[in-house]
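Protein root UVB sensitive 6 (Zea mays), 305 aa
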Amino acid sequence: MAPAVRLKRSSTQTITLPPPDARLAVRDVMRSTIPSRPAEAPASTERPAPAAALQGFLCLEEVDGRRWSYVVDGGSAKGRGSGGVAVPAGASVRAVTSFAFLSCGYLLSSYQEVRSVVLNTLNRARFTVAVDSFIKTGHIPSLKEGNSQETIFNPPWRHETVAIGSRFGEAFQEPASFLAIRPLFEDERYMVTYNPTKDKVYALLKDQAKSDDIIKAAFHAHVLLHFINASHARRLKLKQKQANPDQSEHLYSRNVDFLAHIAESCKIVSSSYGTFKKKAREQGWIMSESLLNPGKARLCAAKPQ
């Protein structure tokens, strides 16, 4: 083993290292004794950005033979994207156009496929078509005609003019209306009324109502709606003739108006509901209260104290 090499730095410091590291130790010790000069800032190596970068161009990419250019929207740069995020721009317009065209074609084919299906059940939409046709023409549309005239899409903001199985507070705006029409439905298991404030016909079901009673209530509601719509122009003219009517008198006049229509609709329903059911069966229609999706509210008989 070779003897250790000693490097004498001063009278007060001696470093002993193994022979293989002697030269490295000497170099480190010498560097530690030489005062270091302050570090100088390196020369600037920044290069001016190319003209394309000033215009927002980032790079060009080719994928499977298709080229995509990426642009950055920052400052005065022109291009697509926000917050320095790179987005594909080149063929994106063509891709979006193709996707929109294919989506429209898919929706159209799906709509035609739904239209081609002929159902023999009377849901709310087809029930409305059948009753309206019966009131206006006296005939029930065939299965194909009823399905073709059905409204498939109902937006949420569309105003519903008929409500079945409604609650008392929704249907009546004051007790006078309820007391006025109650005698008309003593022998029925439902009640039908019109709320002028909400412009909607309500069919209220009693707790004894069965399947046929619910269907009859829906039929009666559409008959009443037909009378209300037929006299709508006349009622508007009547309102315009009254300059500043008292609120209670004006409300009472409107009540008298639709109460007369309710009484008239009761006569029509009692004589035509059986004919409506017979003609609907002849056309192959199947009616059920579950298809009409009535509400769960029911009117209970008052118990004497």
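The chain is about 45% helix and 15% strand. The first strand starts at residue 5 and ends at 10. ok done for today
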